[in-house]
């Protein structure tokens, strides 16, 4: 039974298409901590640091500087999405 379920799961994952648009919201760790006051600062900092330090060149990801004002970020996201439609 376990082998059957594993095979079914593998087949399902193989049918999942890549996203049309992959957007990465990049914000420096300290800004992320300030924006998430209800979450553990160490956890938010670590999560943000992972995204911040990754080299996104050579990927399909569209990296957005999320430290800017919200309306600027929204505008960029709209533009990215509309370009892909």
Structure write-up:
By secondary structure, the protein is mainly alpha-helical. The chain has one domain (18-84). It contains 4 helices and 2 strands; from the N terminus they run αβααβα. Strands 1-2 form a two-stranded parallel ribbon. The chain is extended, with a radius of gyration of 17 Å. It starts with a helix and ends with a helix. The model has no long low-confidence stretch (mean pLDDT 93).
Task: Summarize, please.
With 85 residues, the chain is mainly alpha-helical.
Low-pLDDT stretches are none
User: Which structural class is indicated by helix and strand composition?
Assistant: mainly alpha
Please give the order of strands in the largest beta sheet. 1-2
Q: Helicity range of the residues? A: 55-70%
Order of helices and strands: HEHHEH
Distance between the termini: 42 Å
Q: Count the DSSP helices.
A: 4
């Amino acid at each position: 039974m376990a082998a059957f379920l594993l095979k079914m799961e593998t087949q399902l994952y193989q049918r999942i298409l890549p996203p049309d648009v992959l957007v990465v919201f990049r914000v420096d760790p300290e800004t992320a901590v300030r924006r998430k006051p209800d979450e553990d600062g160490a956890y938010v900092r670590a999560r943000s640091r992972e995204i911040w330090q990754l080299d996104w060149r050579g990927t399909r990801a569209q990296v957005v500087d999320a430290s800017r004002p919200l309306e600027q970020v929204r505008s960029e996201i709209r533009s990215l999405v509309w370009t892909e439609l």
